[in-house]
Amino acid sequence: MSKISIKSIISILATKFTIFLTKTILKGGTTFPGKVALKLDKNILSKVASGYNVILVTGTNGKTTTTSMIYNILKEKGFSVITNNTGANLYSGIVTTFVDNYKFSDKNHEKFAVIEVDEANVKFITEKITPNIITVTNLFRDQLDRYGEVYTTLTKILEGVHSVPTSKLILNGDESLLGKLDIKNPVVFYGFKTNINENKTIDINADAKFCKFCKTPYKYNFVTYNHLGDYYCTGCGYKRPEISYGVDEIIDLTSESSTVKINNTEIFLSQSGVYNIYNALCAYSIAKELGVDDITIKKSLESQSSSFGRQETINIEDKEVKIILVKNPAGYNQALDTLCLSKDPFSAAFILNDNYADGRDVSWIWDVNFEHLNNVDLNEIYVSGLRSYDMAVRLKTAGLDSSKFSITEEYDSLTERIKESNNKKVYILATYTAMINYRKHLHSKGYIKNLW
């Protein structure tokens, strides 16, 4: 064990005790213990993270799922690895993760930490530790009252990247904001090498429509979703970088799963949607950079289960209920596109909150293509959350039959209506705090075994 000060020892012991209390009494709580640790030792992160090969996962959408995929691949390979699997991705939550896993008598073996980090918190983490790898999944408009536009989010991430020029960046090459960055870091790109459909035009509400160098509208060889795809600029010649790890073929794409070829390796993904193909591709890329073989990656990704509100499936009486976290137009549209692949009738609940973690401004729901739901057999519509009436107005404006609406802010009432549904399959699309709170409700009723 490396030398550690008395102050740090006190900080670690106090934090471990706090973690014990929060887990046993509060049944959760991953942020407060880290605040205790930092109060006692502001440099505690650099000490408890010492010896880890750190992989930071950031970006707007897909952080939690991608982090879980990377973690599971490394575990499958037999590595010693930790992660903040509940999505506690702020500075104090990350400190909690490292302190919780800290051992005073740790042996000097190779170990990994796969850490999800909020975009605005990257700079705080890289002030204390130098990650081996930093990956950025994508950049979309999200929580406008906190982040502003996508360029602001990129600036926040790069503030952290500039502090660690030796960290390797593994970036989404289909994200036009991530090409030709003014950085010293080694960079590897992943992306799609095949189109999903014949679409070459991005939606009017897409997030980055203009060249970041000359402001000319981008052209596309193909679009995957939102502004992601094989882009190029006719004004200055800026184009998508060379892709090292790519999706070669989409073999099958349904509302429940997909089968793809990544660098000629066929992989089945139980999580549906193009965005989850991107998540798997990112995890594959990082695993390959760490020297993991294709067989191990394939085995792990094919056994990856959904959890914690990311397409998590829960049985409520005889109903198959799938919870999907939605927090911005890009992710919401992907969720709706996935629902539209369903060939069977289903019910859907739309839960909208406007707490700080959701973003106070809910005007973004008007950039979501709810109109697409007119093309599916959606015969029961439940609306809930703190802003349930805003959501109901949006759905009615989209052309959905308001006579099918059932509006309630009470989770007990929502659950009862789900039980009484005429359909076996129910999708719940919920913003962050709505997802957290409804999962707590289901946990209290015995429908979810593990809350965190």
UniProtKB/TrEMBL annotation:
Gene field: murT
Domain Mur ligase central residues, every copy: 57-230
Domain Lipid II isoglutaminyl synthase (glutamine-hydrolyzing) subunit MurT C-terminal: 325-435
UniProt-annotated binding residues for Zn(2+): C211, C214, C233, C236
Catalytic reactions on record: beta-D-GlcNAc-(1->4)-Mur2Ac(oyl-L-Ala-gamma-D-Glu-L-Lys-D-Ala-D-Ala)-di-trans,octa-cis-undecaprenyl diphosphate + ATP = beta-D-GlcNAc-(1->4)-Mur2Ac(oyl-L-Ala-gamma-D-O-P-Glu-L-Lys-D-Ala-D-Ala)-di-trans,octa-cis-undecaprenyl diphosphate + ADP; beta-D-GlcNAc-(1->4)-Mur2Ac(oyl-L-Ala-gamma-D-Glu-L-Lys-D-Ala-D-Ala)-di-trans,octa-cis-undecaprenyl diphosphate + L-glutamine + ATP + H2O = beta-D-GlcNAc-(1->4)-Mur2Ac(oyl-L-Ala-D-isoglutaminyl-L-Lys-D-Ala-D-Ala)-di-trans,octa-cis-undecaprenyl diphosphate + L-glutamate + ADP + phosphate + H(+); beta-D-GlcNAc-(1->4)-Mur2Ac(oyl-L-Ala-gamma-D-O-P-Glu-L-Lys-D-Ala-D-Ala)-di-trans,octa-cis-undecaprenyl diphosphate + NH4(+) = beta-D-GlcNAc-(1->4)-Mur2Ac(oyl-L-Ala-D-isoglutaminyl-L-Lys-D-Ala-D-Ala)-di-trans,octa-cis-undecaprenyl diphosphate + phosphate + H(+)
Protein name, as recorded: Lipid II isoglutaminyl synthase (glutamine-hydrolyzing) subunit MurT
Keywords: ATP-binding, Cell shape, Cell wall biogenesis/degradation, Ligase, Metal-binding, Nucleotide-binding, Peptidoglycan synthesis, Zinc
Assembly behavior: Forms a heterodimer with GatD.
Pathway membership: Cell wall biogenesis; peptidoglycan biosynthesis
Lineage: Bacteria, Bacillati, Bacillota, Clostridia, Eubacteriales
Database matches in Pfam families: Mur_ligase_M, MurT_C
InterPro entries: Folylpolyglutamate_synth_CS (IPR018109), Lipid_II_synth_MurT (IPR043703), Mur-like_cat_sf (IPR036565), Mur_ligase_cen (IPR013221), MurT_C (IPR013564)
Domain of life assignment: Bacteria
